[in-house]
Amino acid sequence: MADKFTVEIIRNAAIFASEEMGIVLRNTAYSPNIKDRLDHTCSILTPNGELAAQAEHIPVHLGSMAIGVKNTLEYLEKEGTSLEPGDIIIVNDPYIAGTHLNDITLLKPVYAKGKLVAIVADKAHHVDVGGSVPGSLGGDVKELLQEGIVIPPLKIAEGGKLREDLIKIIAENVRTPEYFKGDLKAQIAALNVGERRVLELVEKYGVDTILEAWNEILEYTEKYTQNRVRSLGVFGKFEAEDYLELNDKILRIRVKLELKENGEIVVNFNGTDRQVEAPINAVYGVTVAATSFAIKSIIDPEMPVNHGFYRAVKILAPPGTLVNPIKPAPVSGGNTETSQRIADVVFKALAEAFPEKVPAASCGTMTNVTMGGLVDGKRWAFYETIGCGSGGRPNSDGIDGIHTNMTNTLNTPIERIEADYPIIMVEYRLRADSEGPGTFRGGLGITRAFKLTKGKATVTVLAERCKTSPWGLRGGGLGERARHYVIKKDGSLIELGCKETITIEEGDIVYINTPGGGGYGDPCKRSKELILKDLEDGRISLERARKKYCFSS
Fold first, then answer.
1. pLDDT per residue over 142-179, tens digit each?
2. For a Cys staple, 191 with which of 17, 84, 108, 260, CB 3.0–4.6 Å?
């Protein structure tokens, strides 16, 4: 039997191996979205697909990995497909892999002495996977096939040999095949590193010890989660709702969260609106990711998360709803936008239970912007998400201009954008007066403006909070809503909704203005020193200080 010290060494070594996989993936990737923005995630799982270790990468990827790999293994078993040494599986079907089509998941079995000892997996957001618009995130799609090529679990490598025929088929169905091929090989390189690190652990401790350690790690996390919930001493049912936007309607996400005396947590999304023919449905893996992120953030941000956590936390999402759609509902924005709203609504429910631990709402959107076109006979596609304001907190302001909650990416460096694409940046700044007023104000949103320098381009904005505002807490005010528009080269202005696709021409400028975070506490109780500092820094105007903060100079 493995002693506790050995188990702890193996646990931390697996986490570090996942981190190293991420570094390799980043360093060898081709696309700016992965190399510069770090839109990827790496994990190590048990032989039956239970999450054992993960790196601190993208929250929406991490939680869904626990669902996606098990789904993939079940699919392969039903198909009669065995996992052999040197095999690599590729999958992006959201109803199996657990996010959206742009996120391509690879997994590789790790064998030692003829026995399966682990599975290494990674997921990366590829800038384009086909579909109706460049970047594959169309705001007006009605079914999954319009979002890109759907890849069921297939062997992209068998016995250590790549299937170049399959790679060629996929590459022919995307707009940026060089990025696809380069990023795919980066993912494979990361898997190989993860495999080596697991085999090093096996060499040192033996097969039986490693397999036993996986079980011990999961059991420990299950008991830790239950003990942590019991120690907080808050039990009961807590409810909340929040809203998603379509151009013609508002949709509801409703949650009931129960903290039980036995240490279990049950989260039920019954009452959430039905799925729609629009890209804001979130597959179950996304719902699990967003829910577990919010719960972990409040009950214990430092606690380990692996499959043991999901033994203590039950997440119920009625099939056919926004939070667990039935195929072929489109889901591209469910991964980016609905995930944010799921986190918001779970935080809102937790605010009833832990009023001094939960911040006001962050902006509630990743604000996806995709562009693409044809220049000099070559297709190009650009994608990024844009930061915003986080919510005011019980003891401090929200953070200005940051990626919040379900995203953990960086911005794309302007130098990289202008070097790789027919785009120049004409404005990039914090958005003054966008904060939610409060004793502790929300963070400011961002203004980011792109100018097309050549040809024509298709631009899609897939975002939220154009009609609804990030909510405040304890008397705090609402964060400012998003506003997006195009300034044509003739000076005319075209307003854009939060889910819109438009064609622009050389000289046109796309302006993205992201929301601010909600405020926390009565704005009239904000300290004069903090107000003066915000005025000095240009974060708020004098008019706003007087109107929202009861300020008199």
1. 999 999 999 999 999 999 999 999 999 999 999 999 99
2. 108
Q: To the nearest 5 percent, what fractions of the chain are helix, strand and coil?
A: 35, 25, 40
Contact 265, 229 (CB under 8 A): yes
Distance CA 480, CA 437 (A): 10
Which pairing describes strands 313-316 and 265-268: parallel, antiparallel, or unpaired?
Answer: parallel
Separation of alpha carbons 21 and 186, rounded Å: 10
> Residue 482 has what DSSP assignment?
P
Which run of H or of E encompasses 504? strand 499-505
**Residues β-bridged to residue 428:** 448
Quick: pLDDT tens for 409-463.
889 999 999 999 999 999 999 999 999 999 999 999 999 999 999 999 999 999 9
Counting every residue written for the chain, the total comes to 553
Of 62, 53, 123, which is closest to residue 93 (Cα–Cα)? Answer: 123
CB 244 within 8 A of CB 251: yes
Are the CB atoms for 350 and 163 separated by under 8 Å? no
- Alpha-carbon distance of 443 to 298, in angstroms, equals 20
CA distance 336 to 525: 35
Strand ranges in 246-358 using DSSP code E only, listed in sequence order: 250-259, 265-268, 313-316
CA 164 to centroid of chain Cα atoms: 30
Report the alpha-carbon distance of residue 445 to residue 424 in Å, rounded: 21
Tokens 């039986």 belong to 208
Q: Are 26 and 14 in contact (CB under 8 A)?
A: no
Helices (H), 300-333: 307-312, 332-333
Determine whether 401 is exposed, middle or buried from the number of CB atoms within 10 Å of its CB (0-12, 13-18, 19+): buried
Distance between CA 66 and CA 169 in Å, rounded? 28
Of 364, 353, 391, the residue nearest 473 (C-alpha):
391
Minimal CA–CA distance to 360: which of 519, 524, 521?
A: 519
Q: Hunting for tokens 């799925």 — which residue is that?
A: 275
> For residue 493, which of 472, 474, 508 has the smallest C-alpha distance?
508
